[in-house]
Please model this.
Amino acid sequence: MVTPRAAQIVKDADSRVNDGDYLRAINVYEAALDDSQRCAEIHYKLALLYDDKMNDPLNALHHFKRYLTLDPTGPHATEVKNFMKRDEIALATTLSGDAIVTRQEAARLKNENLALRKELEDRALKLKAATDKPDTPASHSDRRKRKSR
Model:
């Protein structure tokens, strides 16, 4: 059950959101949090603020997860799960510098890299073998001609 004080805090936070004072709204919402199921809705509102207004997928994910923990079958559960998928991708993209590589692609690149290294090693060995060959008979006669001049 929502206490009159908690209801007033949420109402104040909602008013801050409407005024565009998102940081203050976050602080006020957080002041109303406890571990009760009624806080699921507050976590949902915080997640939306972090997601839509603050462009902070990490904090949004935290509050979306708290929402699902407190009310796994709540009215926003399906929506929250979709937001979480999107935010996880956004967070991974941010952390990886906009370059998400799947495991399959990473394995393919690793194998390609190993094949190219092997090819380079083989070429280096062939080149070394070609330059380390003992003198051929033609090269002996060329040296004798040079010496006799």
Q: What stands out?
A: The mean pLDDT is 87. The radius of gyration is 33 Å. The longest helix spans residues 103-131.
